[in-house]
Design a protein that fits this description.
Blueprint (H helix, E strand, L loop, with lengths): L6 H11 L9 H16 L6 E6 L5 H9 L17 E5 L13 E5 L11 E4 L9 H12 L2 E6 L7 H8 L6 E6 L7 H19 L8 E3 L2 H5 L8 H12 L1 H62 L1 H15 L3 H6 L3 H14 L3 H31 L7 H19 L12 H35 L3 H26 L5 H25 L1 H32 L2 H15 L4
Parallel strand pairs: 1-4, 1-5, 2-3, 5-6, 6-7
Antiparallel strand pairs: 2-4
Length: 568
């Protein structure tokens, strides 16, 4: 026999699975199934409860009286005869669970004339009554029964109301179909109706035709001890076999298995729907981010272009830190500062004080200009423009399809892990700021390191050897003049200093010119970093969607594993 999970094991998993929005509409039904499952496993020794259900005039009450061997249920021509469920139980039978349906309870003493006496019978209202509340009463009664005797007459076999009602219980109740008034039917008509009942049970409920018990009987004749169709005896044998304790327990376990299959079927459908919704939402978000990223990349690239001058200055500053010699001092200056020092050198030939003043002024102005440019560059890249709506528009476009899909599925976008526009906009601005910090630090350092691997062997000697030669020549002239006389005049040193400054400036300009490609590499690296951050953001948002509703999904999967049973 299949191993079924304990009800206590099922309940917490079902409670957790009900957090899935797709299961919410089925909450009441799932709770009924859970209680039904627990009853099927916990009532091992309880008497078999048999519910008689059927359409108006099917003869349920007559059949019940025939089986009990005494007049328990009222028979009559007025329809419907039964308006409430009535429990007929032998003296001493426990009815705590069954009595919860609010049914009328009638105790009886099994008589010697009872063909199948001593059972718990539930007489239910007619299924096709104009009073729809009757079907609800019948449903509540059948929820507590173990077996359903479906009593039909020739006009009710294919009745839609009856089939609709039974569909809910077809997989979780033992069903026995009875065609009543067989004494009014020919043998051929009986077989036709029985075949029709089997076919409908197969089509409507998915039952195997050979497993559907169908009997053509006459309840009225059975009360008089007659069996015109010859099938009432077979019905009694089938019913008595169900009533034995071993078979009754097996019936309840089979019912519980059907309940578990129906319950997990609902959970499986909801889980698949949830997974599909999450996959579609994630795909829509990734598609939206992909489209939006084109505009975001172009926007960031245009911002970097506005900061190109500052990036070139930063590259020169870091490259100057690797140089040695006077050229390194000039590289720390901008083109304006370097030009100012060159002009100061020329002016100093005629007036040294004026030349020094020009040099000092240009150096101060250059330092102020660098700080101003740094602030302007950061503002241009990081801070939004006054009329800049491109990033906000990109954020809205990226989320539009995903959020619309969530709403169409009846879910709040936040429940699926989708951010709102303001949150995504903040994330995009953070990515832009992070890419800028990377550009002015790591990207600049890496680009300069790559440039230095070649410049240290080619550019450094080319710039500094003329300066070393000039210093050597000046030293030689000074020593010679000191030894041989006469001493060198001030003009010589001014001219030598001016030449030295010009050579140093030319070297600084040459080094700066060689860094033009390096500055462009920094910009490309910053752009690549921004693209990578956008991809990381997209991946993180996708994972947020994938992680949403995790507890409910894990509980649903655990329920489905329970259906599969323990590993062999």
């Amino acid at each position: 026999m299949d191993t079924l999970p304990a009800p206590d094991e099922l309940e917490p998993l079902l409670s957790a699975a009900l957090t899935l929005p797709a299961l919410k509409p089925h909450t009441a039904r799932l709770e009924r199934l859970r209680r039904d499952y627990a009853r099927g496993l916990e009532q091992k020794d309880a008497p078999l409860a048999v519910a008689l259900v059927g359409a108006t005039g099917a003869g349920k009450s007559t059949l019940l009286n025939a089986l009990a061997g005494q007049a328990l249920a009222r028979e009559g021509e007025d329809r419907p005869t039964s308006s409430v469920a009535t429990l007929f139980a032998p003296e001493g039978a426990g009815l705590e669970e069954l009595a919860q349906v609010g049914a009328k309870v009638v105790r009886y003493t099994p008589g010697p004339r009872g063909l199948w006496s001593g059972q718990v019978f539930i007489d239910t209202p007619d299924l096709n009554s104009v009073a729809t509340v009757h079907r609800e009463v019948a449903r509540a009664a059948l929820e507590r029964a173990d077996v359903a005797l479906v009593v039909m007459h020739r006009g009710s076999v294919a009745e839609a109301t009856q089939m609709e009602f039974l569909a809910e219980f077809a997989r979780r109740r033992a069903l026995v179909f009875l065609i009543n008034f067989a004494d009014e039917l020919s043998a051929e008509s009986r077989e036709t109706l029985k075949s029709q009942a089997r076919r409908l049970a197969g089509e409507q409920f998915g039952l195997a035709l050979e497993s559907v018990p169908v009997f053509a009987i006459s309840a009225r004749a059975a009360k008089e001890g007659k069996d015109p169709s010859g099938e009432f005896g077979a019905l009694l044998f089938h019913l008595k076999s169900l009533a034995t304790q071993a078979v009754a327990e097996r019936v309840r376990r089979t019912n519980a298995q059907g309940v578990l299959e129906e319950l997990t079927g609902l959970v499986d459908g909801a889980l698949k729907q949830t997974e599909e919704t999450l996959a579609r939402t994630r795909g829509a978000l990734e598609s939206g981010l992909s489209r939006a990223s084109e505009g975001l990349r172009a926007d960031f690239d245009s911002r970097l272009a506005l900061a190109q001058g500052f990036l070139a200055s930063e590259v020169r500053h870091q490259a100057a830190g690797r140089f040695w010699g006077p050229a390194a001092w000039g590289m720390r200056l901008s083109y304006v500062g370097a030009g100012g020092l060159g002009a100061a050198t020329l002016v100093a030939r005629r007036s040294l004080p004026v030349g020094l003043a020009v040099a000092a002024t240009s150096t101060v102005l250059d330092a102020v200009r660098d700080k101003t440019r740094a602030r302007a560059a950061e503002s241009a890249v990081v801070e939004p423009f006054e009329d800049d709506l491109s990033v906000e528009a990109a954020a809205r476009a990226a989320l539009a399809d995903a959020r619309s899909l969530a709403h169409a599925s009846g879910l709040a976008p936040e429940a699926l892990g989708l951010p709102d526009v303001e949150t995504l906009l903040a994330e995009l601005k953070t990515a832009r700021a992070s890419a800028w910090r990377y550009t002015v630090t790591t990207a600049v350092a890496e680009a300069v390191a790559g440039w230095w691997r070649t410049a240290r062997w080619l550019l450094l000697p080319l710039i500094n050897l003329p300066l070393l030669a000039l210093l050597g020549h000046v030293g030689y002239r000074v020593v010679r003049a000191y030894v041989e006389g006469p001493l060198l005049g001030l003009d010589y040193f001014i001219n030598a200093g001016a030449l030295f400054a010009l050579l140093a400036g030319a070297g600084a300009l040459l080094a700066s010119a060689s860094l033009a490609g390096t500055a462009r590499a920094v910009r490309r690296s910053g752009h690549a970093r921004f693209v990578a951050l956008l991809e990381t953001l997209g991946g993180r948002l996708g994972e947020s969607i994938q992680d949403s509703l995790r507890s409910g999904r894990e509980a649903a999967r655990a329920l489905l594993r329970l259906r599969a049973g323990p590993p062999q």
